[in-house]
Specification:
binds iron/sulfur cluster; Immunoglobulin-like; 5-stranded antiparallel β-sheet; 4-stranded antiparallel β-sheet; elongated; 2 domains; alpha+beta
């Protein structure tokens, strides 16, 4: 019953996708020099499936190595410990973030914003200089789709021809077995991915504890995990390259970020044209570069929204150049200006300016990170309470105190009044805070009447650790 439902579901999705097989390696005649819509949409806005040829070559091997390193980091980072503490933790529920071992609390939003700003500027600088290198080499969408899911698909269903044949054949035993195996593995990987993501947010220890307890104790978390896994499965099984061509805003920013000096995957039109087997250019118009492209575009038409700089077309064209006895690199990493003028320069005024801003911003981030206090203190007068006049000729105010321990060590602290002269009476005796924990309490501050110069006097507190002043905090004291 379940299997019949499953196949009906798969068939429904596949049959709703308009005619398969008309893009990628099967698109060897269509003129792609003018388009008024993304390549994988037909004139009615329906989906066109891409059957890309399996890529191979020097650049693909390099990308595979980079992607395995990144995948290893993704899966391994939640388990890495620095002095017994997580290396990475994005604990949104408790507003606590550990990035490369450094703890950030909600109170550190400014420092986190600096870090995010530096990261965005870094991506912009890289895009201005090296185009969409992020998309092809480091974006999780590309890495998971091209280096995990697509490789499994090639392994089970074969290259583009067998896959196309399989998709268009009736549901026979071979198709049922292959599709079941592929989708079962896709589902397992989606669930595994979701669980690793979960570890980034709750930590590996909490995750291990949760999965060792009955599901009923974590029903909401379990349902969210299933939902996210389902979304991953749908993206990598069906939605695929549309994330890059239709959803991701980064691709759409290329028009403003790239200029003629940006180094991108590009076709050397000076060498290649006039194209065709009987013409004098090096391009023999074999369209092999289109056949391997995961977004099915023709790079000979210039930089396009759909190009994720995956380098598959470079490898494929290099193979053709080997066969035709022409120098490799008809498609290569180069800039429009480099091809036009015959020499490529990486540095120009624009990326130099971005680099200066990035260095300044990142230096400021490092400075604020290392100069921030080990604790974050907040002292406010208890709302709704006025001052009190006492028999010993003092005035007293009641305060609420909150201290966050931002370090990985337990802290034994002391609250002292720095100015003016007065006395603190704490509710409870000691301020002991475990690592990454917080302390909340109330205290009364007594100040002799003669020390008050107005109805609102500024008072200064000091937080001491082992007799050493680690933070100062100013508040207001009200009097008659
Ligand atoms: S693979 Fe190279 S030779 Fe063949 S069409 Fe593309 S650019 Fe021309
Ligand atoms: S055109 Fe862009 S997306 Fe297509 S194969 Fe070449 S680098 Fe990859």
């Amino acid at each position: 019953m379940f299997l019949i439902g499953y196949f009906k579901f798969i068939h429904l999705i596949i049959s709703q996708s308009p005619p398969p097989g008309d893009l990628g390696a099967f698109n060897m005649t269509e003129d792609l020099s003018f388009r008024d819509r993304p390549i994988n949409l037909n004139e009615k806005g329906g989906r066109k499936w891409v059957y890309a040829k399996k890529p191979s070559g020097k650049w693909y091997t390099r990308r595979t190595i980079v992607s395995w390193i990144l995948l290893l980091f993704f899966a391994g980072a939640p388990f890495i410990r620095l002095n017994g503490h997580p290396f990475i933790l994005l604990d949104i529920a408790n507003r606590k973030f550990i990035i490369f071992g450094a703890i950030f609390w909600a109170q550190d939003t400014f420092i986190l914003a600096l870090l995010m700003l530096s990261f965005v500027l870094f991506i912009i600088l890289f895009t201005v200089t090296f185009g969409r290198i992020w998309c092809g080499w480091a974006c999780p969408q590309t890495i998971f789709l091209e280096m995990v899911f697509r490789k499994i698909e090639f392994l089970i269903e074969g290259d583009y021809k067998s896959r196309h044949k399989l998709d268009n054949s009736p549901w026979n035993t071979e198709k049922i077995l292959k599709k079941t195996a592929k989708h079962a593995i896709f589902i397992l990987i989606s669930v595994a991915m979701t669980n690793v993501f979960l570890m980034w947010f709750i930590g590996s220890d909490a995750w291990l504890k949760q999965i060792s307890e009955p599901v009923s104790q974590h029903l909401t978390g379990f349902l969210i995990m299933l939902l996210v896994s389902g979304v991953f499965y749908w993206i990598y099984s069906f939605f695929r390259e549309q994330v890059c061509t239709m959803v991701c805003p980064y691709g759409r920013m290329q028009g403003v970020l790239l200029d003629s000096k940006s180094i991108v995957v590009t076709y050397d039109y000076k060498r290649g044209e006039p194209r065709g087997p009987k013409n004098t250019g090096d391009c023999i118009d074999c369209r092999q570069c289109i056949s391997v492209c995961p977004t099915a575009i023709d790079i000979r038409n210039g930089t396009q929204l759909e190009c994720i700089n995956c380098t598959a077309c470079i490898d494929q064209c290099n193979k053709i150049m080997e066969v035709t006895g022409k120098p490799k690199g008809l498609i290569r990493f180069d800039s429009e200006a480099g091809i036009r003028e015959g020499h490529t320069t990486v540095w120009n005024a624009r990326n130099r300016a971005y680099s200066v801003v990035l260095i300044l911003l990142f230096s400021f981030f490092i400075y604020t990170l290392f100069s921030r206090p080990a604790v974050e203190t907040t002292i406010i007068r208890t709302p709704g309470l006025l001052f009190q006049e006492n028999a010993d000729n003092t005035i007293s105010n009641v305060y609420n105190i909150k201290i966050v321990n931002k370090t990985h060590d337990d802290m034994h602290l002391e609250l002292r009044l720095i100015s003016p002269e007065g006395k603190i009476q704490m509710a409870g005796n000691e301020i002991k805070i475990a690592d990454q924990d917080r302390f909340e309490s109330t205290f009364i501050l007594f100040i002799p009447k003669e020390k008050l110069n107005s109805d609102k006097t500024e008072v200064e507190f000091g937080i001491f650790s082992n007799g050493e002043l680690i933070e100062k905090y100013k508040a207001t004291f009200v009097g008659p």
